[in-house]
TrEMBL record:
InterPro entries: Na_symporter_ssu
Annotated stretches, region: Disordered: 1-26
Sodium symporter small subunit domain segment(s): 42-120
Keywords: Membrane, Transmembrane, Transmembrane helix
Pfam families assigned to the protein according to its UniProt record, in alphabetical order: DUF4212
Positions of transmembrane segments: 51-73, 85-109
UniProt-recorded name of the protein: Sodium symporter small subunit domain-containing protein
Extent of the signal sequence: none
Organism expressing this protein natively: Halococcus salifodinae DSM 8989
Comp. bias regions, Low complexity: 13-24
């Protein structure tokens, strides 16, 4: 059986797929892969996209939920008093910004765990500094 993991180009210049028989992905450096938000190339990209969408949906509810609730049930949101504030004021003025801040921390924590899972390190640059000065002549040496 031939290797059907890669797309091949025939003589007419059209791209042929593997016919859906691939059972595993080719090893891909996720930094060099083409990014398609609807069909991510690597497992890291798929997991990261899930994290992004989950965080985005939670943010949408946290930020727009109180405003929508005030439009849908104005009597309830206005008449309910919590900590001396009307419920819509408390949720919109304090709850929504605090929720966004908490979601930022949750995203950072989950992204760090994702980086650990896939062995991605964000350390110092491994490049070495040289004693030469930067070229200021546009790259042309006289």
């Amino acid at each position: 059986m031939t290797d059907n993991r890669a797309r091949t180009t025939n003589d007419s210049g059209t791209v042929e797929t593997d016919g859906g028989v691939t059972t595993e992905q080719n090893p891909t450096n996720y930094l060099d892969a083409e990014v398609n938000i609807f069909r991510p190339e690597t497992a890291f990209m798929r997991d990261h996209l899930k994290l992004i969408w989950a965080t985005f949906l939670a943010w949408t509810v946290a930020v727009f939920g109180p405003v929508t609730a005030a439009l849908v049930a104005p009597d309830l949101m206005t008449e309910t008093i919590v900590l001396g504030f009307q419920l819509h004021v408390l949720l919109t003025g304090i709850g929504a910004p605090f929720g966004a801040l908490v979601l930022s921390a949750v995203y950072a924590y989950r992204r760090d765990k994702l980086d650990e899972k896939y062995g991605i390190e964000h350390g110092q640059s491994t490049g070495t500094a040289t004693d030469s000065t930067a070229a200021t002549d546009g790259g042309e040496n006289a």
